[in-house]
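Thread: Newbie trying to understand structure tokens

Hi all, I'm a second-year student working on a class project, and my supervisor (Dr. K.) asked me to get a predicted structure for one chain before our next meeting. I've only ever worked with sequences, so writing a 3D structure as a token string is new to me. If someone could post the tokens and maybe explain what I'm looking at, I'd be very grateful. Here's the chain:
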Amino acid sequence: MKLAFYRIRLALAACFVAAVGILCPGCQSVTGSTAQTLVRVIDASYNAPAVDIHVGGTVIASNIASPNITGYAFLPPAALPVTIFPVNAKAATVQTSGTFLASQQHSVYITDFNSTYQATVLTDQNTPAPSGDISVRFLQQAPLSGNVDIYFVPDGSKFSDSKAILSGLAPGTTTAYLNIPAGTFSVVVVPSGATAAKYTSQSIVFTGGQVRTMLIVDQQLLTNPPINVVIGNDLN
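---
Reply by user tm_fold:
Sure, no problem. This is what the structure looks like when written as tokens:
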């Protein structure tokens, strides 16, 4: 009797997950499962309050604020409206739409527009980086810092002895995915033409095949460091 009871509970739980979808960082489709699309939120707005994000009739992120990269939500593929509500508000403040195809990954990208904010839909890389490499995309949303240079500094090295992987990256820029040899690095962000870093991460182990999005933002309340980098796991 107990065994049968637990089997019923497991079956019900599986149905529930299939019905509502789940949130998961860098998730991949499961062989034999119903085709789905993956959608997450990247909040880079200084103007937006804490918000809830709806895609179609599903809330994929709740009570989030910048800077933030959420995990992916599984949704049925379709052309869907995207609406953003301030927390506890009944009216949406931002609306857009996207075509979310089967087996694709997308990000609802919230950025500032004059004194308010807007949302666009980005297509994320859903295939592994080439063997021995990682794929990285940069979202530059640090207007106070201006143009920046980005370094991946190997363990035990100085950024002054390294070559920038990107130079003069302007605020508002969304790069394509770059392929970089895997390894253990510190991510360093330097104002273009400067000799002092505004941001240096801890050492991070990047393994071949990984895909990452890096959001660069100004720190509004903290001055040390004056820049922050939020890393999202797109794949692996």
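A couple of things are worth pointing out once you decode it. The mean pLDDT is 87. The chain has one helix and 19 strands. Feel free to ask follow-ups in this thread.
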